[in-house]
């Protein structure tokens, strides 16, 4: 029961990033570049504090650090700018569906054995994303916002693939956050930031400290106790939670197009994961 509650809390934290970002931008409380920079910086600070409390040897620099920092910054910046035009639910679906596609592509490139049901599930999930993003009428999401969120998904997917071999996930995450700060500040410098408001700062710092820093740390705590299939299936709940939050807190409407795409994406991923679990 404790493991279930901790896992559920982590998924709520992941979904809350979408809700907080969308809420901050919709109200004009902060611009996307400032949100991303504050999120990365505050997340780096709390993760550095967690690493310092462990009182263990910590490697700040490694050969994978540049790639980790770049892909993390790509995720953070693309995520924030995408929510200028995307709803919380649609953004979360594109993000987590895209991440799964990237992870599947990584498995193919590394020549891992792919079962027929895994391939079928990935094809269904990809078809769901295509259905959601296909430009036909007002039901389709904004193409620029969808493209930015797909960039965020690619960044997060590659970042996850890089981190699969980590022996110190929390330490590596803290280091990647630290090195991603200058990249987020660079994005801030090349845009036109709006005046910051206390509400916008509070939402960005909450996203960075609680939902990202502490949320990721909690995820890495429970992750070793979950099978790969269970961990992946748990993440399928994030778009659903984001949709509920968007409807309840932001007054967002959920279209039939989104519901069909959700069923295809989440169902396809679930098919591939069930196969994986049975094989094991």
From TrEMBL:
Instruction: Give the transmembrane ranges.
Output: 36-54, 66-84, 90-110, 117-137, 143-162, 174-194, 200-219, 231-250, 256-274
Stored InterPro entries: AA-Vitamin_Transporters (IPR050638), EamA_dom (IPR000620), EmrE-like (IPR037185)
Domain of life assignment: Bacteria
Metal-binding among keywords:
no
User: Where does it live in the cell?
Assistant: Membrane
Membrane topology term reads: Multi-pass membrane protein
Indicate the secretion signal residues.
1-15
Arranged from A to Z, the UniProt key words for this protein are: Membrane, Signal, Transmembrane, Transmembrane helix
Cellular component terms (Gene Ontology): membrane
What is the protein name given in its UniProt record? EamA domain-containing protein
EamA domain boundaries:
144-273
